[in-house]
Amino acid sequence: MSLVIEAQGLRKEFTVRVKAGRLRRERRRVIAVDGIDLRVERGELLGYIGPNGAGKSTTLKMLTGVLTPSAGQVRVCGLRPVPQRTRLALGIGVVFGQRSQLWWDLPLRDSFDLLRHVYRVPAAEHAARLRRCRGLLDLDGFLDIPVRQLSLGQRMRGELTAALLHGPRVLFLDEPTIGLDVVSKQAVRGFLAELGRAGDTTLVLTTHDLADIERLCRRLVVIDHGRVVHDGTIAELHRRYGSRRLVVAELDAALVTPPALPGAPLERVEADGRRLVYALDSAGVAEVVAGLAGLATLRDISILEPDIEDVVARLYRTPIHSD
Amino acid sequence: MAEAGGTLAAYRALLRAQARAQTAYRTSFVIDLLGNVGATVFDVVTVLVLYGVTRELGGFTLRETLVMVGLTAFAFATADLLVGNIERLPRYVRTGLLDAVLLRPLGALPQLLLMDLPLRKVSRGLFGLAVWVTALAGAGIEWTPSRVVLAVVAPLAGVLFFGSVFVATATVSFFWVESAELANSVTYGGRDFTSYPVTVFAGWFRAAFAYGLGFAFVSYQPALALLGRADPLGLPAWAGWAAPGVALVALAGAGAAWRVGVRHYRSTGS
User: Fold this and answer.
1) A73 has which bridge partners?
2) How far apart are CA A151 and CA A109, in angstroms?
């Protein structure tokens, strides 16, 4: 495996001028990104999340060479993003949900053709990639329509195609599903999942829609106030913040005293004692079922996956202890 | 080699797209072309009107001054066509266009210029060229080979100089968003300044614009060299040939300012 993204102590601060009194203006320092370390291997699918203003977009802009870091080391595809911006651009693709890489007044097809020249892609390669995207993203219905007349979902599918036509090794996506309807969201997620399965392209995705993350990313980096507060799998996040899978057992008749099961504390009792909810700490589903089977007749068993939104919401509320 | 060729082809493709988008509505494009000559015509007429009430301005006759007017009209209009839209930089920042071009494997400045090239301003440049040629023909210049070279090089140096001024002043908006007024006072102020003999102005204003910012070398000094007149302000004769050098210095300064500006670029939220 090789490292595609390597950042150490990445930091960005701005000075903003704020009104202080009628004429006076104060300069105030705002730290958008406060020392981020990040290592991403080739082929990884990384979810990069955090509340508004946490520094997600700023990080992405430093990784893509748009913004100059205030401090820290950063390499993407082995290149330094700002000094080697144009070389790096050939190797990365970027989709900013609220920005466009397309030519507003031209048909979508013409934008794609222009990008072939901009990225100096051999015609045959370009055509092959476009054909693939047309199939997977269903572009044929609106290729000849000027971009400004496309719906948001159509435009986003166009943006994704535009970002991939030069065969980038890393794809950065900043809120790619923002504002999309359910069908378009599914189309975009399905496409990205397909891309991830192929294993060549590294994906870095920021989003507010955690369904994107659950569907696509094994690894999750959560940042808040410009710092990494979690870096690991989604399962690790659940373990760390005490969210567990739940087993819901439906019984024929209520038990007088629901049994205590080792490794699976009882969470709650519902439906007048006929529905028992156990949390899975160290025990598995089978052990819970076995523990109950001797005491009551089971009608149904279901498993509730932990809700990532709850975890993240709790995470955002937790104050950060800095030293 | 192939790399450089590919880059040029990329810029050509951007230019073609821009031309296609702007000429899509033919009638309105033609009207735009005609309407755009107006401003430059007005600049020339202003000078003619002044000479209606005086025989000389700062010691120069109408024919002599027209050489400066023609040079400025061509150089400014052409620079405005090619580079002038960079004064819309704050808008590019706001709409995210600057982010978009920074993500592509091409220079940010050439992309911005090509993607917003106001082709309708071609008419101004052509009008400026006509004034320049007419002024040269009517000024009674004793033509020598070196003066012919100067007659060709000076307007090009002027384009380069005004273009650099456009870029340098626009760059200020990277640091200070509401800098448009200041930028305009230097660019359009510079154009008005170079439409008259420097001798018309006086004091710190002349010192600052003519020599501090270098506007004296855009039209006044080359005109002196073409007309074979000594500088009443005492600069030696070679100053009349300094235009290309001054333009290159301006170009280097503007390039450096742009690079520093992009490094300081802060982008906008999300």
Assistant:
1) A8
2) 16
**Does B268 reside within a domain?**
no
Half-sphere exposure of B172 (CA within 13 A, CB side): 16
From A106's Cα to the closest Cα of chain B, the distance in A is: 7
The answer, for A24 touching chain B at a CB cutoff of 8 Å, is no
B103/A65 CB distance under 8 A: yes
Question: Which of A14, A66, A79 best probes binding to B when mutated, by most B CB atoms within 10 angstroms?
Answer: A66
Contact A14 B266 (CB under 8 A): yes
**Backbone angles phi and psi of A115, in degrees to 5:** -65, -30
Of A65, A105, A120, the CB nearest to B6: A120
Whether B270 maps to a domain, the answer reads: no
Q: Which two tokens stand for residue A197?
A: 């399965």
Nearest CA in chain A to B94: A99
* Identity of residue A249: A
Largest Cα–Cα distance in chain A?
78
pLDDT for A323 beyond 60: no
**Amino acid of residue A106:** L
Query: Residue ranges of the domains in chain A?
Result: 3-239, 244-305
> Contact B141/B148 with Cβ under 8 angstroms?
no
Angstrom distance (rounded) from CA B86 to CA B67:
28
Per residue in A17-48, pLDDT (tens digit) is 777 777 777 788 888 999 999 999 999 999 99
Distance from CA of B29 to the nearest CA of A (A): 16
Whether B99 sits inside 8 A of A89 (CB atoms) is no
Report the residue from A65, A99, A117 with minimal CB separation from B100. A99
Range of the domain at B8: 2-263
Searching chain A, which residue's CA lies closest to the CA of residue B4? Answer: A120
Q: Do A175 and B14 touch (CB under 8 A)?
A: no
What are the CB-based long-range contacts (under 8 Å, 24+) for B243-248? B243/B153, B243/B154, B243/B157, B243/B158, B243/B161, B243/B217, B243/B218, B244/B153, B244/B156, B244/B157, B246/B157, B246/B161, B246/B214, B246/B217, B246/B218, B247/B157, B247/B158, B247/B160, B247/B161, B247/B164, B248/B160
Residue pair A177/A207 in contact (Cβ under 8 Å)? The answer is yes
d(CA A203, CA A195): 9
Contacts of A105 in chain B (CB under 8 A): 21, 24
Q: How far apart are CA A40 and CA B243, in angstroms?
A: 53
Residues 48-107 in B contacting A (C-alpha not used; CB under 8 Å): 96, 99-100, 102-107
* pLDDT above 90: percentage of residues in chain B: 62
Q: For the domain with range A3-239, which CATH number is right: 3.40.50.1220, 3.50.50.60, 3.40.50.300, 3.30.930.10?
A: 3.40.50.300
Least confident segment among A52-66, A241-255, B74-88 = A241-255
pLDDT value at residue A1? 55
* Residue, of A289 and B216, whose pLDDT is higher: B216
Alpha helix segments (H runs only) across A258-307: 285-293
Average pLDDT over residues A84-113: 90
Q: Closest CB to A85: pick one of B14, B100, B102.
A: B102
